[in-house]
Please model this.
Amino acid sequence: MDMAKENQSLTIQEEFARKIKQENRREKIIRWAPVFVLIALIVFFTIARGRAFASVSNLVAILNQWAIPLLVALGLTFVIMLGSIDLSIDGTVGMAGSICSVLVMNTLNDNNFGFLGVLIAILCSVFVGFLVGVIHVKAKVPSFMVSFAFMNICTGIAYISYKGTPATVTDPVLKALPKVSFLGIPFITWVALIMLAICIYIQEFTPFGRYIYAVGTDESIPRSVGVNVDHVKIGVFTFAGFIFGVAGIIGLIRLGQGQAGIGTNLMFPAQAAVVIGGTSLSGGKGGVINTVVGTLIMTVLINGLTMMGIDPNVKTGIQGIIILVAVILTIKRGPTVIAK
Amino acid sequence: MENVSTTKEKRDWKKTLQQNYSFLVVILMIIIFTILEPSFLNSRNVTNLLSDSAPLMIMAAGMTPVLIMGSIDLSLGSMCSAANVLMLQLMLKMQPSIENPYIIFLLAMLLTLLFGAFGGFILGAIQVKLKVPSFIASLAFMSVWDSVALLISQMPVKIPKAMKMTTNWYKIQLGPIGLPLIIAVGLTLIYHFVMTRTAFGRGIFAIGGNERAARIAGIRVDRYKITVFVLNGVCAALGAMFLLVKANSSAPTVGEAFTLMTISAVVAGGTSLVGGSGSLVKSIVGVFIISIIKNGMNMVGVNVYWQKVVYGIIVLLAVTISTDRTSRSRIVK
Amino acid sequence: MDEKKLLFSARDITKSFYGTQALKGVDLDVYEGEVVGLIGENGAGKSTLLKIIIGVQPQSSGEMTMHGKPFAPSDPMEANREGIGMVFQEQSLIVNLTVGQNLFFGHEKDFSHLGFINWNKMYEESQKVLDEVNCGNINPRKKVLDLNFATRQMVEIAKVVNVTKSGHDDQKCLILLDEPTSVLSEQEVQNLFTEIRKLTAKGHSVIFVSHRLDEVLEISDRVYVYKDGQNAGNMPIAEATEEKLYAAMVGRETTTEYYHLDEQGKAEDDVVLETRDLGLSGVFKHCGIKLHKGEILGIVGVVGSGKEDICSVICGDLKPTSGEIYVKGKKVSYSSPSQALDDGILMIPKERLVEGIVRGLSVAENIALSNAEKLSEHGVVSKGKINAQADEWIDKLRIKTTGRDAELISLSGGNQQKVVFARALASGAEIIILNHPTRGVDVGAKEEIYELIRNVVAEGKSVILLGDTLDECIGMSNRVIVMKDGLITGEFDADADNKPSQVSLVSLMM
Model:
């Protein structure tokens, strides 16, 4: 009642200013929310599980579990910053791993291309990313549809590459890598961290990084200063393909065996991590650091829930709900907004 | 002047082809597979092919209006899996307390359909009320329903012998055409009638064509959109029932492949992803395209893994063909 | 004036879109170091001219010069190189980037060293640019998101000044400001003016477009008045008074035949629609409107006055944040236009292509859009009834189409609008809100639409009219309400033989 009375006495300009202020305040809260969520989760699990959670060994375990989700989410980040989406992850990652497994020394055939095999596998994935981008941009098909189709195509190609019987890697270098560690951090985590550095470099120190933000905010702005928006988009999808390829190789190294399953169930945690980190699906917002926080939230959450003995089948569902809640909290609403 | 008319003719010709290419594709597929494998056209295979397409057709019927309205449902397959395991579990739960297996079957089916309707309602309401785009909302629900399916039952379960007779209807044949397909086609045609001859159906086309205009013109946009999702959920659950009866067992991943297959079938039939146009009759043709490819590839002995690749390419081709690229300024995300 | 150098000039610029002429030959001269105000009613052609100058769209005929050389930009970048920049009504800053990053957006390569952008260097340069426009107090490292609108506006101006100078430090620029004050508070407007004066002191020039006459009078050195795409006056500020400008803006008097004044009827006493203290937070407030049976109620006001938002609220598209709406004495509250339609309220929207028609559907289906439910028996819509209805209206409104099954998009603008009208009439709605019913319609079709509106009220229906021009609104209405900045500022009776003058309305609008 008081509020209503107060509103009555305001002028229209004051009302308008107040509305803007409220929006800004909301914006600020949302900007910092991921960090609070992360801290809250850590506090919660520490209280609930005590030493078992807050121990050095569990911290190391979390850092190891963190590597692949981080890697995949990094690839997705730029795509989502454009306002697009890439659903091809499960397929591309599985494909890269599978193709690599049959090209390096393995139990299925006599190939032994070594490093060249790894390179070819990554290139395949890069090419898929490029295709997704080109079809999306040139044929004007929504990215979710193109990448959804490629998720299936790539899963198929993965199976076909080893014809149903997964190949076990016998290449001595690849077999040894999972055990290599430097400064106490395992090789796999190092790769993720190097990719993280590359992504930060792209986002913060190249014109391309600026263009990603601009395209996501409003395509007409970069277009008006002569930036080739199509190239930016294709570039982002191609780069995502590259990262998914690397993730595929890492998955292969970890598992020792090439199979389409390497990629299974990577997409949901990645999508959830990116959106909960604060990179909005409408584009132009967030970034690599947000994704780091987001993937940490997801990793801590899964780690903690596993410790609390939750049914592993519930995990995927939780990821879906997290995506939904994060989107609902950040999306624009109102009677005239159209959601298709 | 002359120039104008020829380009117009060209456009008309192109349009006709764009609208009806799916029939040509069906004929072409049949010819190709018959050349590659003459037994493709023998009566047993045709019977097989036709009855196999029933569950897909039901799900495609549910999905078509979703696409006409410009939305999408990526959770369809997962909903189907969840409904599939749910129905059998319900039957098993009711077995001790109810004697008549037919009543058990009907009750379980009814509850499963309700579950589908409920799932569709939630999805629709989230889109309409909270303004979350359907692809992302349904993506989230894909993982939710997958989880639900696995929570209900992790392993494939067979229908107990005592209740087997409830599935006999699935094998009834009227000539080369089985009862399941007749039901599926019948339901699709009813839905087609609803889409073309009721205020609701016409509203859906208007919403897909221009949702803003539809709203201003006083069409009950929110209610219609939710209804389409509810019907889509019911169709997914019904498809799940067909799959359960067909296989005589439930499996928590049975629907996985159907999301892609259904979308492939609908877009291959000629319903555009942009919304505003399409038809359920076209989707029937689309379903046959997919079924023929699936069956034909099996007959010719193509590795089963190629199927995913082929469906993916079909979706890409069909979507690319049906997308209107004339307006340059339209931004696609 | 003579000692000043001519910076930019436009001669006899025309522009036509889809058969309607937005500009019928206008002139504009800008000298170095001056602010030129540009005023005119909605649709007078101001925005069109700005778009031509900045290179967003080419003119149909006419010539422009800049720095004494012929000037015909093919895109905004070319205009920038020649020293012309524009601050658009919608801001074109990327909010998640910093001020400096926005200032040099698209020019990052100039700061790249060994593949890294040297941010420090960019921010130093940014500081210089901000100093140039006297905004040294803005921190270039701040994100645009964290700035208020006024500061953003200054960043935008700094950005435009920067790109237009592009290297030659002594090049004089021309900055186009399109409604720069619409989101600013009074104090912020004053700050903006101070900055503009500092800019012109350095020899740069500004074209200032605004609906607010007092602001134009305050900041400009010279004022141009446009009307219906033509020059209607050009005077130094010393000679300009509000009265003079109003008179120049409105011009011609209302004609009897054009608006079928002899057919204007008297409204009945029954109130069919009433709003009490209606408001939409931050947009409009305290709006009490009464609409009588058989009445045409005109609402006039500039863009942003809130007149369109009132219509959106009444037709159920937006929910009001305060006040009440009564329809035939019954208090109502709508959450969607479909509920308003149930009470017999329907709006014909302004943006026909975006909100009015469904492209893919046929003429017949578009006409039946609002009453498909009423045309059905036992839930089944009769195709025959839809076709019969379409034939009836095509005949009645003389809609030119190849047939009722033609796709709506193939019709001309005026005929599309008639289809939208037919839909509203067929819907059975008794309160019809006409939001710019003659927008993008050629002259002949306009007159037919006027006659149509007269017929609608003669049947006892009521109309709320937002006219495309002031003239039209006065000519058609029984009563006119004037709005300014979200408040009702005046109400006039407009009987056929006693129409209020345009000047009296304009002075309350601006």
